[in-house]
Amino acid sequence: MIAVLKSGTTQEQKDHLLNWLKHMNLEVHVSNGKEFTILGLVGDTSKVDIDLLQSLEIVESVKRVSEPFKQANRKFHPNDTVVTCGNVKIGGGHFAMIAGPCSVESKDQIIQVAEAVKAYGGDVLRGGAFKPRTSPYAFQGLKDEGIQLLREAKKATGLPIITEIMNVRSLDLFEDVDIIQVGARNMQNFDLLQELGKTQKPILLKRGLANTLQELLMSAEYIMSEGNENIILCERGIRTYETYTRNTLDLSAIPVLHELSHLPVVVDPSHATGRSSLVHSMAVAAAAAGADGIMVEVHNDPAHALCDGAQSITPEQFNELNKMVTKVREVIR
């Protein structure tokens, strides 16, 4: 349920109403706009007398929210959420380029890629330490050592780091990680999501391989319900009957998610296409569709990468991609 308060409502009046609502065991989220204040009521709102609430002098309007996601809903929070990570902001007009190798392979590799990403305008360094692989015999990542190498790359370049968490038991290892990524396979790992909600770290939440946008937003709701609102949604392609690409990139997800939610939206064209030759065009298309950021895989030697070399671009290609994305964003602004 949403209650819109009239312009000119005093703080004392707001506090009196908030106390009344909280006494009904409702959780109240306050969004202060330039002209109106919006109260989002979460809980058993059936006990709220809409006519009584509507009749209050300070209340402009009241309406029920039909969507099951509440805190992630733009109706609750009309203004765009801006997620801050060090000096990097994502959302609300702020754009971020996230780049780095699929897997951290060695100190020389991650430092070299990190320096190239920094030199060519990247904002955040990505790198997999724990790798969810379809085959149990494939490279599973360096795990703890991989996170340590990411820390060293961060120290060398100053870039914030993002890496994927696989299991809630390893959460302590992510203390120095700036953005925790929840991969497509863990999008509905609700125990993990709730534990991440108890942190205040930015969480990049990837859409599952065959999940709807509402299911993605409900997963974000799990995190937000525990108090963490620093969430970045990520469209990384979904599984369809098309086999030429690794997945099918759903560019329509960008404006739809912006319409439904206030959370920023990042696009990963590397995992969506699985082909390095398609990453450039899909990244540019995502920027044109209004994405708040792009996440791509960059490797200094894709042909010999231990993981996903076929979808990784070189640092030089990342440089050209970043230039084109910047031009496109200037045009649409």
Structure description:
The protein has 333 residues and is an alpha/beta fold. The chain contains ten helices and 14 strands. The strands form three sheets. It has an eight-stranded parallel β-barrel with strand order 7-8-9-10-11-12-13-14, surrounded by five helices. A four-stranded antiparallel β-sheet has the order 2-3-1-4. Helix 4 links the parallel strand 8 (124-126) and strand 9. It is elongated and about 70 Å long.
Shape: elongated
Helix content estimate:
25-40%
Give helix and strand order, one letter per element, not per position: EHEEHEEEEHEHEEHEHEHEHHEH
Q: Cα-atom Rg, whole angstroms?
A: 21 Å
Low-confidence regions: none
What structural class should be given to the helix and strand makeup?
Answer: alpha/beta
Provide a compact summary of the structure:
The chain is an alpha/beta fold and 333 residues long. It is built from ten helices and 14 strands.
